[in-house]
Amino acid sequence: MNTSDNNELYGLLAEFPGPEPLVQATAQVYAAGYRRLDAYAPMPVEGLAEAMNFRRTSMPLIVLIGGIIGGLSGYLLQYWVAVIEYPVNVGGRPLHSWPAFIPITFETTILLGTFAGVFGMLALNGLPRPHHPLFGVAQFKRASRDGFFLCVETSDRKFSLDQTRDLLTAAGAIEVIDVPR
Amino acid sequence: MPDSTTTLRPPLVTGDKTLSDVTRDICEPMARRPTALWWGAFSISVAALLMGVVAVTYQIATGIGVWGLNKTVGWAFDITNFVFWVGIGHAGTLISAVLFLFRQKWRTAVNRAAEAMTLFAVMCAGIFPLIHMGRPWLAFWMMPYPNTRGPLWVNFKSPLLWDVFAISTYLLISAVFWYVGLLPDLATIRDRSAPGWRRRIFSLLCLGWDGSARTWHRYETVYLLLAGLATPLVFSVHTIVSMDFATAVIPGWHATIFPPYFVAGAIFSGLAMVLTLMIIARKVMSLEDYITPMHIDRMCKLMLSMGCLVGLAYGTEFFIAFYGGNGFEQFVFLNRAFGPFAWAYWTMVVCNVGIPQLLWFRRVRASLPLVFVIAIVVNIGMWFERFVIIVTSLHRDFLPSSWAGYAPTIVEIATFIGSFGLFFTCFLIFCRIAPVIAIAEVKGAAHLKKPHAPQRESGAEKAA
Fold this sequence. Notes:
The complex is a heterodimer. By secondary structure, chain A is α+β, with helices and mostly antiparallel strands. Chain A folds into 2 domains: about 10-55 and about 135-180, Alpha-Beta Plaits, CATH 3.30.70; about 60-125, no CATH class. Chain A has 6 helices and 4 strands; from the N terminus they run αβαβαααβαβ. Chain A has a 4-stranded antiparallel β-sheet with strand order 2-3-1-4. In chain B, helix 3 crosses helix 9, helix 6 (about 160-190) crosses helix 7 (about 195-205) and helix 11 crosses helix 12 (about 340-355). By secondary structure, chain B is mainly α. The longest helix of chain B is centred in the middle third of the chain and has 34 residues, at about 160-190. Chain B has 17 helices and no strands. Residues about 1-5 and about 450-464 of chain B have low confidence and may be disordered. Chain B has helices at about 20-30, 35-60, 75-90, 90-100, 110-130, 160-190, 195-205, 215-245, 260-285, 295-325, 325-340, 340-355, 360-365, 370-395, 410-435, 440-445, 455-464. Chain B has a single domain (about 20-135, about 160-445), classed as Formate dehydrogenase/DMSO reductase fold. Helices cover about 70% and strands about 0% of the residues of chain B. The interface between A and B is large, with 74 and 73 residues.
């Protein structure tokens, strides 16, 4: 019965009256075995990502790798220029005068670490994204103001239009909305 | 939000706001037509900016001989202005990164505007060394790239090149930090706008932000990491600026105290500029509930502590000149305090060390007009600090026969005023097109009234 619906629907969107009810409902729906779900809030809500067992991100690793690449390339560029490509003998001082290379190495480390972090965050979040099925739901506009939503996607193995709707209502949803694809 | 401190600490947002009140209060001034006050300020700023454009065009076309520099005083007004603006640019990152790491939640009211201010101040700062090059159209020569001039490489051992890297990194990272912070708020504006060009623009700018829990989780992680990276950056930038001076052998510049001294001064001047702008903005944009006297009070305390650090540095410099026993160093400091530029020196001391001491008094910190005046005084004092450091150290050098004076020409003054024009023009435009307060951050940090039960009362009761 739900197969035909599933093709036209992206999922079910449930609205909750506040951050705490949303966290509770998310934990409840997750505990019921649903995995393809996401919660939407106008601000970061403590415990929300944890409620759907989303704890670890690879962001720190991405920033670390970006920083290391930045630092190494900054230092090696200076080394290559000062020692190999364009050596200048100033009163017999060593060509590889590493303390003088530190400030620029530091700056390039920070620069590439930050860029890796920002672009990595955007990429992992799937941004920029011109369209999302949720943007078609009129109520979803409030997700950036004062609306707290939980969306269970039809692609979830456990998804069944009636049961999922009942579960969301039982979890305290004010309203459950069909999200067209 | 369970928090035992709620009753002890003053609220971050006054006026019993709900989440949608916050959105409305911050977004509405942008949708309204600009007030006469805004137009007035904008016309003055643009006039100043145009004057600067004329002055810059003239000096680039003629050559920087139109400045008041001479063989002895080779750095003066332009480098003073450069350091002045870079310094102002430090408060933004201090507030957005350092205070973030210290979990100072009150920063949410001011960080957006402070970051914007940083961006514009660093832009203003960049203009001066560019013009000083004499041939600014060859500015790209400062970048290390394989070229047809030999190839001729830049000198990586020069603090002046470190400065190029530090300032451009700082500008890029301030811009990125600011934009990342803006994303959720741009989505808020997108969702508030009626379908049309405005909505389309904000849809593009917010990159399709949807506020999902996973997005927020990564966003918060990366914000924390960026704050961790930007914190050493903010200290490094003015440290490197100070090395432009400290690595030279000029008495009065060649001092190990310079990096911390410059960083404290930068944060001091930056906070003064943030206070100046915030006291105006909260009135003009009716944001009194978000930028409360509590916020002003905290920034005053921070400014006072930085002012005391700067005062300590002034004292230390004098002591080391005496204790170090170097005759040239002693002469420079005596010449600073009692020589031809004594008026500038004492202006600096009074403005930076004397007058800010009034901030010890709670009643002074609570009086916005007084705080405003003190912040302006500090801005002036910090400009004079850089002028004193640069000009008094140079104008009487080792050889009395080469001693010289310095006075700025009208072109230099016009350029300086023009940089203020650029700064305020950018800031006023920013106030019109972006939320001046980080909406999502305020919502997350402040203990707002419970989100009002949405339209369907029965549903809300069922949920409870």
